[in-house]
## 1
Amino acid sequence: MLYRVKQFFHALFPKISEDDLLWVNRILGPNEVELFKKLPVHEQQHSIAVGKDCMRANGSEELLKAALLHDIGKIESNLTILNKSLVVLLSPFEKHKKHMARFIRDAFYYKEYHPLIGANLLKNIYIEINQGESFSLTQSQERVIELIEAHHHGNDSRDNELQLLKKSDANN
Ligand SMILES: [Fe+2]
């Protein structure tokens, strides 16, 4: 019984373990960690689970970064657990969304565009980091951005890492 109560409270007040936090700090740079921590804790947990799956599949450093940061486009969104569930329930009626409440329309918007929003957010952070050296992105930074932008709608079947990211996202 006590176990059930604990389980319930863990679901209500999710926490990131010390070990997982250390792992995140190993994969991400300080500015990226700052961005990661702006995600709601349940999204942080999801992203860590996706990242660990990618690590087990021997993913590159860029893939692991993308896995941890793939949903950062939701930071400014209203995609709470409840709104996400509503979006799923209402998705068969998405074409009528202009008649729905504003918060539902916003949730549909972020569901659709968070990959692009997240990619742009990270790009701006990288440009800030690079300043002083160059304004252009490194190949590695470009790759992380590319993976984030494609994590829902990208369907390049030759891109094995993108496929791995999509699969791990769907499984977690
Ligand atoms: Fe996503």
## 2
Amino acid sequence: MFNPQTQTFSSISVAEFFYRNRQMAGFGNSAQSVYSAVRELVENSLDACDEAGVHPVVRVDITTVDGGTLEISVTDNGTGIHPDHIAEAFGRVLYGSKYGMRQRRGTFGLGVTMAVLYAQITTDTPVEIVTQYRSGEGKRVRLFMDIAANRPVVVDETPIDLGNPGTTVRIRLKGSLRRSRERIVEYLRLTSVTSPHAHLTLFIDGKRVLSVGPWSKTLPALPRATKPHPRAADVELLRRLVSEYRGTRTRDFLSRAFQQMGTRTAARVVRFAGIDSKKRVGELTREEILSLSNALQKLDGIARPDASCLSPVGKEAFSTAVTRLYSPRFTAYSLRGPSEWSGNPFMIEGVLALVEGSSSDFPVLLRFANRVPLLYDASEDVLMKVLRQINWSRYSITTSGTPILFVHVCSSRIPYRAAGKQSIASIPEIEREVLSLYRELGRKAQRFARGCVRSVRDRRRMREFERLFRMVAHFGARLAGCKEPPVRDLVVQLFEVDAGE
Ligand SMILES: Nc1ncnc2c1ncn2[C@@H]1O[C@H](COP(=O)(O)OP(=O)(O)O)[C@@H](O)[C@H]1O
Ligand SMILES: [Mg+2]
């Protein structure tokens, strides 16, 4: 029988939570964990290089230590890590430098710590970080995590000087390369599609297995952090901003704390919420904060979110990367947006490539979010869901090759379905834009496919005409007793197409 005296309560740290639920972050089994560890380390390296404004040079080394243990190390030429933050960044779950409102690969301050946690629970070895921040600020640190307390435990640290900024992170974990190798290679190849400015290499047991990029000389413009959009102002966000701007009058607060909020719009919001515009925000009651939040989210006529916090790959770089990696017969590029979901700006860009061979009308879908390829959980992704809604046979593109669709969603906040960041949730605004993107790309490919069918038909008819013309010329010349005239030009003129085609 239930005895109220024995009911016990306790609380656990976030690290403990992710230790118990590591599959949520992509560390469920050993094959996926090797892949996820590489992915998290590479993601951080690329973010750090973009932050530093350099062409990323990222080297991944995977070495077999013994049958079931691997050592993974990733080296970059990025910003390096400030010595004061190394321990927390690697030894504390949900600690990071990327919580601002702008597009970045990392989001939660979770990725590398999960790799460290997994390494620790499978091999009981510390993570090693060798990093150079500014000159004179280089360090080599080895640390464990105290999972129950969610804090780092430093084993040793020594000052070093690498000369240039950059970082190497090294972990040892239990895992199988046999089952993850292909995924890792695919991941790095695809990474170079949406990070075409990067040079990526993979070494396995000292042998170079892959070297891709850079495909583009231009560095992507660094996205700018923006203020929150009024549509994102739920009560919690509003309360935090209010405590930051306590002494400011409500109307001025709105135009200072939010983007797209001029003084006139701010006055409208305040009126709509029924609040005295001169009242200081620190004095607003709970009810007033709630009605202000409602007004901000509901009032019409507020401009769309500022998209300067986003960084799409762009037509030139995206198409070039696809062309260099897949040698397609044709590529089409389209970009949709900027649009918004709950105050978060997003853009969706895609390349539809037709590669040699023909299988089905239904395109192979390759998904990317904030420049990161998504390789797992495709069936649950909004990009796949919309792909299934389209009748691809309508575009008749298979005659010209196998269609591969590369789709990149970028947003200051990607609505991932889980902490492992493998698939994107179905948000109506995103669905709408994805549908339009697919249709645009389908139509572009259809125009090309039609052209191909026409030119195949024309070439066949040209050959037939040329054969007949040659016969006429041959017998005509014999009858007239003169030299046989060339007929090729006549045929070309007749068809008014490029005979070399
Ligand atoms: N290679 C690196 N170069 C520079 N900073 C790094 C690197 N790896 C990790 N960091 C720092 O560690 C923090 C935590 O990383 P992580 O747990 O992967 O979270 P996230 O990438 O989501 O912020 C990052 O926010 C970043 O500041
Ligand atoms: Mg990360």
## 3
Amino acid sequence: MSAPGVQGGPRSHRVLVVHHTPSPTLQTMLDAVVDGLAQADVEAVVRPALTCSVVDALEADGYVLGGPVNLGMMAGALKHFFDQIYYPCLDATVGRPFGLYLHGDNDAAGALRDIGKIVTGLRWTQVTDHVVTYGPLVNEQRDALVNLGGTVGVRSSER
Ligand SMILES: Cc1cc2nc3c(=O)[nH]c(=O)nc-3n(C[C@H](O)[C@H](O)[C@H](O)COP(=O)(O)O)c2cc1C
């Protein structure tokens, strides 16, 4: 039986999905990413950002980060995750693949800039285009999120 929050069987490669999901649209985005990870046949460890631990981050082969844009920034929950894991992961997770999705109503530039600085500091590797959406989700965007999960999954399983 899988642990709570863990989808998939006992596979050797693991992707940590760190998300803040305060709306139905963001839940649909998260579900699409998890669908993509399932297609890549990796273990998806799905953690709300406020509950995600340093051990979760250290044990992952790759990462998907996702959440809303609030007040021109990443959600505080995602910032809290980075605040917790930054120094413990700084040398231990160099080069690991990551993907990012964001949702807002008009402007994600500040969140993209700030997350970009942090993942540059961590020296994680962006392996697919960020998916940034505004307003209701359309099918092409859902497909892009499935692809994002799948790509991070494949790249994580190569490590
Ligand atoms: C206090 C607050 C600040 C927000 N600031 C931004 C912002 O700076 N840029 C943006 O694109 N969206 C912003 N939003 C919109 C949120 O990102 C959006 O409500 C959230 O992603 C959920 O979207 P949904 O209702 O379409 O599912 C803000 C929302 C709130 C409540």
